[in-house]
Specification:
Layout lengths: L3 H7 L2 H13 L5 H16 L9 H19 L8 H6 L1
């Protein structure tokens, strides 16, 4: 799995923006916690039954893309919050 830093540094502008918002808006710039929650979210998607249809590397990239798409939609909504944080409280 790519780290949040790798997604930020190696991805397109949209992904960089999404990662920055994920870390700053939902995790108060706590990149370590954001990284843990990124890993958790990607892992949840990877465990979906549909991901078994793909080779492992492709499933991983698809899971990362799904989470990035989800975050790009959810982050601009000021009332939304990190789903992992929401479960922990």
């Amino acid at each position: 799995m790519r780290s949040l830093y790798d997604v930020h540094d190696g991805g397109p502008e949209r992904d960089r923006k999404t990662v920055e918002q994920f870390a700053s808006q939902w995790h108060a710039a706590d990149w370590k916690r954001a990284e843990e929650h990124w890993s958790s979210l990607v892992g949840e998607v990877l465990r979906a039954k549909d991901m078994e249809l793909f080779p492992p590397a492709q499933a991983l990239r698809r899971a990362e893309a799904v989470i990035l798409d989800l975050l790009a939609v959810a982050l601009p909504q000021s009332r939304s919050r990190c789903p992992v944080c929401a479960r922990c409280r």
